[in-house]
Structures are given as structure tokens and as C-alpha cells.
């Protein structure tokens, strides 16, 4: 995925922005719908000279700055591997999702930075990505209808439910509504507040076709709201076919540390150990 542009959707699950302490950044933004996502941010731009050029994916560790004053959280969500097409005026014409996967869009809440993107790409392993699952058709009735996303944090031998267990169709914007909104944002989002001008990014990269788009984090459960990440925590995020597996079965396997040994079909799994490192 090192050749893909990495983008994230801000605020696509009810309550998440408020829980993350980010809602104030978008209070003056006007949207047609109250619960509409707020915008798109880059988290990885291949070979960019800034922090955004740092490849930040790792499915075994999540690396945090060795600074106990910084408050980090995992962000359990779904990412889409997409192909983007343009018209003859270099405006985005269509977004075609090919695969979906579990994704950790880790964030440092109190990172001293103007841009939301700096709170996202803060180390060589601020993100995690599970196995890719093929999309038959990204419409209601397609494969994504049968999937949920769940997440857990294991600390000192105890496993806690981290994010809300959520069906993918519970995203505020999903399927055609999400794709239409993303096309609009890629063509119109300006350099505003914590967000970047997306047309400028597309122009700089000569209108690329390959994108990885994280579509928004689930709300946090009480433990995640009250406890930030620390050394030796283990984060587990799983997209799973809820017609095949129950949430209780997934929780049992995470708690017994047997999830990765089970070779479960129809799942996309991230399991990362949290490390602290000195980061320039």
C-alpha cells in the first residue's frame, strides 16, 4: 500500500467527534445534514517531504511518542481500497471501492498541531490495516451488509471492549451516499481550519487513481473514554461476518488470546502491541 494516497473521513459515526474532543474544530462548518461527516484529511502521501510522507502502517505494533503527556487512542474503523477516475477537467468523477478491511486510524488527541493530519501520522506505526476483503458491489444488499466491526483493548491480562460493536450499515454515510459525498469533498474542500485543500493534493500527485480511505471511527465504550493507550497494551480490531460469528465468540477468542490462531474466514483483523519510542 506504499503507493496509495491515504485519506480519512472525519465524523461518520454519531458521538465519536464529541468523545474524541474534536467537535469544536468543526463547529462553524455548514452541512446539509446535522450528522454529515465534516471533511477528509490526508494521513499518508507517498514521498511527500512533510510528515505525511512517512509510511505509517504496521499490523503488529502501534508506536506512540515516548511522552506521557500525550493522550493517544486507537480509532477502530473500516477502510476502503478505492480506484478514482477523473473527467477531462481533472475533477473526480467516480470512486470505486474494490476491497474493505479493518483499520486503526490511531490519533493523539492533544498533539500540538494545527492540522488534524499531524495528529494522525505521528510515527512509523500510527496505523494498522487488516486483510483485504473483496467487495462484490458497494450497495445495499452487497457483502458489506453482513459485516460488523468490533474492537478491544487488553491491559495487564484483562480484555475490555474498546469501541462500540457496530454493523457497517450503521455508518452515517455509507454506500452511494458516502461515495457521492467523498466525490464532492475531493472536488470542493478548501484549506479550512484543520483540513487541507484536496484539489491541491490531487494536482500535486498528478491525479492519482489508487486510494486507501478510512471512513470513520466507531463510538468509544466507557473504558476507552476513560483510559488512554499506554506501553504494552494490545489493541485488537476486527471486521467480521456477523451471520457467521457472534460478538460473544469474538470477545472470548480475544480474551483467551486465540483469535489469530483460529484462522477465521470472512474476517479482517488487526492486533497491535503498543510501544513507546522517541520520535523526531
From TrEMBL:
InterPro entries, A to Z: DUF5718
Pfam families given in the database record: DUF5718
Protein name: Valyl-tRNA synthetase
UniProt source species: Helicobacter gastrocanis
Amino acid at each position: 500500500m506504499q503507493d496509495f494516497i491515504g485519506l480519512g473521513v472525519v465524523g461518520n459515526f454519531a458521538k465519536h467527534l464529541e468523545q474524541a474532543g474534536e467537535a469544536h474544530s468543526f463547529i462553524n462548518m455548514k452541512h446539509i445534514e446535522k450528522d454529515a461527516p465534516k471533511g477528509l484529511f490526508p494521513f499518508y502521501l507517498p514521498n511527500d517531504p512533510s510528515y505525511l510522507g512517512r509510511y505509517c502502517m504496521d499490523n503488529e505494533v502501534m508506536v506512540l511518542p515516548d511522552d506521557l503527556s500525550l493522550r493517544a487512542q486507537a480509532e477502530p474503523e473500516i477502510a476502503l481500497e478505492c480506484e478514482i477516475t477523473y473527467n477531462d477537467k481533472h475533477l473526480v468523477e467516480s470512486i470505486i471501492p474494490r476491497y474493505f478491511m479493518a483499520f486503526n486510524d490511531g490519533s493523539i488527541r492533544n498533539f500540538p498541531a494545527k492540522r488534524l493530519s499531524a495528529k494522525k501520522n505521528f510515527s512509523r506505526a500510527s496505523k494498522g490495516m487488516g486483510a483485504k476483503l473483496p467487495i462484490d458491489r458497494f450497495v445495499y444488499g452487497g457483502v458489506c451488509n453482513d459485516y460488523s466491526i468490533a474492537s478491544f483493548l487488553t491491559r495487564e491480562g484483562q480484555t475490555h471492549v474498546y469501541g462500540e460493536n457496530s454493523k457497517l450499515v450503521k455508518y452515517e454515510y455509507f454506500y452511494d451516499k458516502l461515495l457521492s459525498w467523498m466525490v464532492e469533498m475531493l472536488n470542493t474542500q478548501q484549506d479550512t481550519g484543520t483540513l487541507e485543500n484536496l484539489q491541491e493534493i490531487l494536482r500535486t500527485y498528478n491525479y492519482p487513481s489508487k486510494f486507501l480511505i478510512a471512513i470513520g471511527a466507531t463510538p468509544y465504550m466507557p473504558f476507552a473514554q476513560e483510559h488512554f493507550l499506554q506501553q504494552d497494551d494490545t489493541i485488537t480490531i476486527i471486521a467480521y461476518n456477523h451471520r457467521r460469528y457472534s460478538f460473544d465468540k469474538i470477545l472470548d477468542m480475544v480474551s483467551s488470546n486465540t483469535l489469530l490462531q483460529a484462522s477465521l474466514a470472512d474476517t479482517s483483523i488487526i492486533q497491535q502491541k503498543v510501544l513507546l519510542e522517541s520520535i523526531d
